[in-house]
Amino acid sequence: MTAITLAAPLSGWAMPLQEVPDPAFSQGLVGVGMAIDPTANELRSPCDGVVLSVHRARHACTVRAASGAEVLLHLGVDTVGLKGEGFTAHVQDGQAVKVGDPLISFDMDLVGSRAQSLVSMMVVVNDGFTVDGQSVNREIAAGEPAMTVSGGGAAGAPADAAVVLSSPGAATAESAQCTVPLRIAHGLHARPAAALVAAAKAHSGPVAIQCRGRNANAKSVVALMGLGTVLGDELTVRAEGPGARGVVESIVALIDSGLGDPLVEGAGAPPAHPATAATAAPVAPTAAEEEIGPPFTAGEEVLLKGTIAVPGQAVGSVVRRFRRVARVEEQGAGAAVEEPRLRQALDRIVAGLTDSAQRMPEHAAIFQAHRELLDDPELLDGALADIGAGKSAEWAWQRAARQQADTLAALPDPRMAERAADLRDLEQQVLAALSGEAPSVGLAGLPEGSIVLADEILPSELAGVPAGRLAGIGMAHGGPTSHAVILAAALGLPTVVALGRQAERVPDGAPVVIDGNRGELHVFPPDAALSATRNAVAARAARREENRRTAGEVCRMADGTRIEVFANLGRVGDAAPAVAEGAEGCGLLRTEFLFLERQSAPTEEEQYQQYQQIADAMGGRPVIIRTLDVGGDKPLSYLPLPKEENPVLGLRGVRVGLREPGLLRTQIRAILRVRPAGVCRIMVPMITSPSELQAVRAMVDEERAALGRPEPIELGAMIEVPAAALTADRISVAADFLSIGTNDLTQYVLAMDRGNPHVAAQLDALHPGVLRLIRQTVAGAAGLGRMVAVCGGSASDPMAAPLLIGLGVTELSATPAVIADLKAFIRTLRLEDCRRVAEQALAADSADEVRRLAAEAWPAR
Ligand code: PEP
Ligand code: MG
């Protein structure tokens, strides 16, 4: 039995729990402890320990002390409804903390005016502990001894320890379950969770709540809060032991009545009647497990059609990187065989991860995250339980991993959703190890001349590929403007996406031609086709070498019209090669690559160093730095944004910047510090209205004044939202220049998700609807003499370039690998021809028709 002293987590007036204006706390339903009416805005850790969970509304968090005591710290009363507004979390789930470490800070004015009370609670929520010596009815300073917690050891089992129930389907003498929709606005936060726990504790046997495949002990407030439930979730209440049916019925009635919170009308269907004995939920075959046919065999010539992503052709041998979809046998050979098999497979994966972390220290965080997931006892326990019930190691592992991945994916916290992707990756790796295949991590070990075929490649995988090994990429899924494709383009790798699942039939080592100009994968091509493509690739390489000789010269059309050809960059290392290709500046620095794959945001100094190095490598040429474009499909682990039904239509680009001004201001300061002043311009993504740009300009001016930088800096708007294109004349009042992001503009104009393989073939920036908006943008900018650039993918498309120029665009910012060829092509063009064909294109009916017009006008590209 150990006793520990908890320090006051806040400064303020310390008071007995009974005085808290919330009956769940004052009656001790949540736990035992004390309260503080705060006078300072920072919640600090009361002990050394580990953060078990930070509530998604950031108003509460639980810390587990070394003794096992779980301390819930809850800021204010009725603060869950603020949905995180006014709260900033400084810690993440699983993080080790020391006493006094800041956990959450809050805006006292905002929270105080919107919540019922600022009185904040510190309670121990798990059984087996007693609390005494509360230092109350006095002013207390954060860090002072506040109360003593005794207990631990065997008695102090973690409150969220997995509840042990018979596996679903195993009929026990007395078991019951029932599913009921949750109809309260903020899910199971502290108060309703406490009410549910009180009802569950009245039952002597185990009681569990299941939600989206995840189980929680119904006798633990922490476990219930950790389920991350939201309005409309289906909760399955399960109990075992004498009286199981009665307790299930009473908990269901309690949930149905709102657990003390007001009911939201119309949310969820009424509960079904309690059913005795749960039924097993078999792992249903997913669409991915449908039959696709046997592997193609040598001599079986096949042409697979996909969508053009990165132009160019390549010949090579296939390296498959498909996630494993083979159906696994359910029945095992008994636990004595299956359990050691699973443990050995896991050991192999762990060894592989350790090795990878050493070989690729820059990606060590990814491998460490995978290791942590493999160490999760719930995952292993779930699999071992199934093995104990006679299942095979493969079946048990797959089921446990999928259940956890689905649960994580459904949580509103984007950090959790990312971990679901990691789990799916691990599911495959373990299945591969069980089948005796070598575990494959990333694309690091590829032989030279590989053409990788995969469901979809991750940007992080491409980042680790040694130069020269990878010749081309084919993806069964994916869209033509995904970030992996953008990286592939930067690496000059011909890429075809949306090939469909037939691509999975191509065996390892098969000779193929990947044709990024046509969007095709030619499998087992005849020798003549292989050598014709090799010759075409060599001729193209020779032409490119030729073009590179003159690439450094400024770009003028045949009639003398000046067109600037800039480069899109993502990292410091991209800059020098881009200049060698003839880049006359950087028209888009995608700064999010500096922010992704890390645990915290880069500091101002780190950013400044990167931007300065890029500016230096560009040798005085202009550098347009885009402010952070995250959110949507690019979540940051350290920037929790609310879960959105349609993230691409939600918090993205400047919307995130204005919501998290601290992040944006840091970036602005880093850009303003780059020397010589005037070399950098700032560009803001996803602008919809002039007011957004004005708000950013105000920040820029304030930061300039604070830094004592007298020189102004040009501020541009990205035109990616149709409303911005339509009101370009108004945006131009606020902007110094405009740059059209055709990737997003196209997805929003055509209502086609740029990452959706089902619409990838129609997602074409040469659709006349997109071209008309480009014309409108140029016309709107012309009144105020603003320059219009294009920095989306169509600037790199030789079919699109003459049309963009014909529409009045004067700067193309392209992927570095195409710049030399693009400049050489532009030098052959005449403005009047470009204008004429652009006029015809505006009157066309489809992107295909536009492409035909361009191909007729400029056949020898
Ligand atoms: C675009 O949308 O065209 C663009 C350049 O931005 P991103 O591709 O980074 O979204
Ligand atoms: Mg964009």
From TrEMBL:
Cellular compartments annotated: Cytoplasm
Residue span(s) of domain HPr: 173-262
Catalytic activity: L-histidyl-[protein] + phosphoenolpyruvate = N(pros)-phospho-L-histidyl-[protein] + pyruvate
Cofactor: Mg(2+)
Record domain PTS EIIA type-1: where: 22-126
Biased composition (Low complexity): 268-287
Keyword Oxidoreductase part of the UniProt annotation: no
Region listing for Disordered, in residue ranges: 268-288
Enzyme Commission numbers on file: 2.7.3.9
UniProt keyword list: Cytoplasm, Kinase, Magnesium, Metal-binding, Phosphotransferase system, Sugar transport, Transferase, Transport
One Pfam family matching this protein: PEP-utilisers_N
Protein family: Belongs to the PEP-utilizing enzyme family.
UniProt name for this protein: phosphoenolpyruvate--protein phosphotransferase
Organism, as annotated: Azospirillum picis
